[in-house]
Predict the structure.
Amino acid sequence: DAGVTQSPTHLIKTRGQQVTLRCSPKSGHDTVSWYQQALGQGPQFIFQYYEEEERQRGNFPDRFSGHQFPNYSSELNVNALLLGDSALYLCASSLGPSSYNSPLHFGNGTRLTVT
Amino acid sequence: AQSVAQPEDQVNVAEGNPLTVKCTYSVSGNPYLFWYVQYPNRGLQFLLKYITGDNLVKGSYGFEAEFNKSQTSFHLKKPSALVSDSALYFCAVRDGGNAGNMLTFGGGTRLMVKP
């Protein structure tokens, strides 16, 4: 039973560029959330996708956008990259957008470095 | 708004001794509380959760946590620490009164277990 898979594992981009990160949820899960974890900090919620729509959004600018596909996989896009966007980006999946009985399952993350 | 505080950046304990990692929270509705562990270059792994019921919840790898409503705390405990428990631990809260399963994480506590 495959867990949450994310690609790529590492990425180096230059300021001003755009980046796309990908996530496949755990088998049986239909909801995907994205978190940003800066070095030495806890993860911060970016947004959640369910039924191919953004359901919740954290305090992140519009430069951060996403998409969910019919197979429940998801992409996170970041435009006009800033140095401060350097972080570990974590994808988490669950069954349903609000079920408390379905804890989030996290992938190993994508390490983004912006130079 | 919801928030989590982990007052200790690092906890040091000798192998075989009991360990406690502290967490306090603030949420307007009923708290749903979680503990996750993160090993180097990995995503977060779910340890345990409190939704309702008994204040003492048991989780993976021998960990348990005690919910204290009056003190708004959810401390993580283990009776006998192992060197392999050394990792970064995150407490997280979700407001049970809100739709969506957005988690707010604390800043993390590094647990060091010495032989």
Summary: DSSP finds no helices and twelve strands in chain B.
